[in-house]
Each structure stands twice: as C-alpha cells, then as structure tokens.
Amino acid sequence: MFARLVAFVRGIARRRRISAEVDDELRFHVEQEIEAHVARGVSRGEARRMALRDLGGMTQTREAVRDVRTIWLDLLWRDARHAVRSLRATPAFTTVALMVLTLSIGATTAIFSVVDAVILRALPFGESDRLVALGEFSKNSPIDSMRVAPQNFLDWRDRQDVFTGLAAVGYAAISLKRQGARSRKPCAPSV
C-alpha cells in the first residue's frame, strides 16, 4: 500500500523525468536488437527496420508503456482538457447541452422534492400511522362514497369515544352565471 502511494506521488512530481526514462529504455532495447541482428550478418539499416518491427513501433510502444505507467490523475486531466477543447470548438452544441443538463437537473430536483415531501417524509402528525379516513357508502352514487352529510359528521364527532378527534374537509362547487346566461361555470373547490 505504501509503495503504491510513493509511486503515485513520484508519478505526479516527476512526469517528465519518467517520460525521459521510458524513452531511454526503449532506445536501449532497440539498440540491443539492432546489435543482435548485425551480429547475425544483417545490414545496419535492415537491422534497425527489423528491430522496430519486432518492437511494434517506437510510438506505439511508448504510448503503451505510458498507458501502463500513467496514473489515473493524468488520465483524468488529459480527458478534461480534451473535453474543454471539444466544447469550445462547438459552441452551439455546448449551449444546447448545458441547457438540457440544467433543465433536467432542475426537473429532477423538483420531482425529488415533491416525492420527498409527499411520499418519503412522515405526515406532520404524531403517530401518523394511526390516521383513518371515514365516509358514508352510497349505493346510488359509488363516486361520492367518502362524502358525509354535515349533520352526520357533527353527530359522529359528538358521540364517538374511539378516536382521539375527528376533522372534516369541505368541498363545494359553486355555479356562477350572468343575467340571461345559460351556461354554468364551476368554481375552484373551497376548503
């Protein structure tokens, strides 16, 4: 663990030196291969070509070694610089992408706020798991099954001894019309 930390710090502090060490090491290996081919009787130019072929090319090998020895921070920095250059090159796309991100993050935050307030948080009552909704069932109108006549609610409230308390929510539809007008316009419910 400590050795990895030391290598990490060394990699940050001495990037150029490490790169030079990699280049020197690759040159050494190429020279060794060239000498081996020359010792077998191959011309110096042909020996160099064969050594580079066997190595897989200097540039490709150098990049492969750097990829292995590069730390994740270098990769992150390189990716960030590339992203900024790409975004500067296409300002229209950048503007649209930022607007879409802004709107989507805002919408997600708004939806989560509503879900948090309505579903995830407990009701603002002590022992909210003991709340009950009461209503009257009507065979004639199953849609109005939770409505209760005001007189019945007052009777229930006065005579009950099971519940801690009762509360009612009122809803009213009011129709307004001008003199001579025949259409009915419902108003918003009142509580």
Describe this structure in words.
With 191 residues, the protein is mainly alpha-helical. It has 3 domains: 2-85, no CATH class; 90-120; 127-191, no CATH class. It has helices at 2-13, 15-39, 44-55, 58-69, 72-89, 91-120, 150-159; strands at residues 175-176, 185-186. It has a two-stranded antiparallel ribbon. A hairpin with an 8-residue loop joins β1 (175-176) and β2. α2 (15-39) packs across α3 and α2 crosses α4. The longest helix is centred in the middle third of the chain and has 30 residues, at 91-120. It is rod-shaped. The model is unreliable at 184-191 (pLDDT under 50).
Strand order of the largest sheet: 1-2
Biggest sheet details: 2 strands, antiparallel
User: Unreliable segments (pLDDT under 50, ≥5 consecutive)?
Assistant: 184-191
- Percentage of residues in helical conformation: 55-70%
Q: DSSP helix count?
A: 7
Q: What's the overall average pLDDT, rounded?
A: 79
Terminal residue distance = 66 Å
Shape: rod-shaped
Q: Please state the CA-atom Rg, rounded to the nearest Å.
A: 40 Å
User: Which H/E pattern describes the elements?
Assistant: HHHHHHHEE
Structure classification:
mainly alpha
Strand content: under 5%
Number of domains: 3
Number of strands: 2
Short synopsis of the structure:
This protein has about 190 residues and is mainly alpha-helical. The chain is built from 7 helices and 2 strands. The protein has 3 domains: about 1-85, no CATH class; about 90-120; about 125-190, no CATH class.
Write the layout of secondary structure elements.
Layout: H1 2-13, H2 15-39, H3 44-55, H4 58-69, H5 72-89, H6 91-120, H7 150-159, E1 175-176, E2 185-186
Antiparallel strand pairs: 1-2
